[in-house]
């Protein structure tokens, strides 16, 4: 359960952006969470709401965009999204694919109102 | 309403410190590995067995993370190599800043291998880069062989899987073939070693793995 630390890091970033825009109110923060990021969206939302409650950032909303794991098949030169832990290439069925994404833990955007 | 694109990592501050550590390890020709497992899989026992087998003049050091107590560092210090406890006081993982602080008063030029024993946890440590050259995940046969499927993140990111406590195989229902299959399903081709810190089985291969990995780091340094 490190989602509280992650939520806290998101809020630090929100505050540092907000400081650049005096008078503006941040209403929404968008993050991308990869399937391999080790972060549970539900726990993150819970931790985020707890940290925001009772602060000047209220009612800030966290929007999570889940990102699937991707694998790459070098033989077919394609990258594909993984479903149900099946890493085999959908074209040639080879298991020899390599990790190509899904570790995202990114701040995507903020929405502000002046 | 205005939307501002940010496009940066949530843990960019941790990643910045990790990059600084990685650069420092590279400059000093140090192999740093980050050892991760559930509590009780045998991380500290593996380190004890490792330090016990290394020559007395080996330039190795260990950092060991726990939520409370310095028991592990005391267990490891008796082998005569530098060992330091990082007590997180509740946090379920180590982060790069804690590593940097712990190393602040250690002369890195005296080292060529640094083993970091993370807090016992298969989830949270996987998100935090510590500047290591390789993550190593450990699983004991007293646990379920489906751990790779349940915790794919750490298995996907680790270079090596150590299956520990293989001396217990006759007494538990652990299916070794399935464990390997699941690990390769999540991380095709990952290195897998089977060890027992009790009987010593497989420990030579583990030390050879470390040595091979260390030579690769020195190779990278020379190639610069």
Structural description of this entry:
The complex is a heterodimer of chains A (114) and B (224). In chain A, 25% of the residues lie in helices and 33% in strands. Chain A is an alpha+beta fold and 114 residues long. Chain A has one domain: hypothetical protein PF0899 fold (2-Layer Sandwich). In chain A, strands 2-1-6 form a 3-stranded mixed beta sheet, with helices on one face. A 3-stranded antiparallel beta sheet of chain A has the order 4-3-5, with no helix packed on it. The longest helix of chain A has 17 residues, at 3-19. Chain A is elongated and about 55 Å long. Chain A starts with a helix and ends with a strand. The relative contact order of chain A is 0.26. With 224 residues, chain B is an alpha/beta fold. Chain B has a single domain, classed as P-loop containing nucleotide triphosphate hydrolases (Rossmann fold, 3-Layer(aba) Sandwich). Chain B is 38% helix and 21% strand. Chain B has 8 helices and 8 strands. Chain B has helices at 12-28, 43-53, 71-77, 96-103, 147-150, 152-157, 176-186, 203-223; strands at 2-9, 31-37, 60-66, 83-87, 113-117, 134-140, 160-164, 191-194. A 7-stranded parallel beta sheet of chain B has the order 4-3-5-2-6-7-8, with helices on both faces. In chain B, strand 3 (60-66), helix 3 (71-77) and strand 4 form a beta-alpha-beta unit. The model of chain B has no long low-confidence stretch (mean pLDDT 93). Strand 6 (105-113) of chain A pairs antiparallel with strand 1 of chain B, so a sheet runs across the interface.
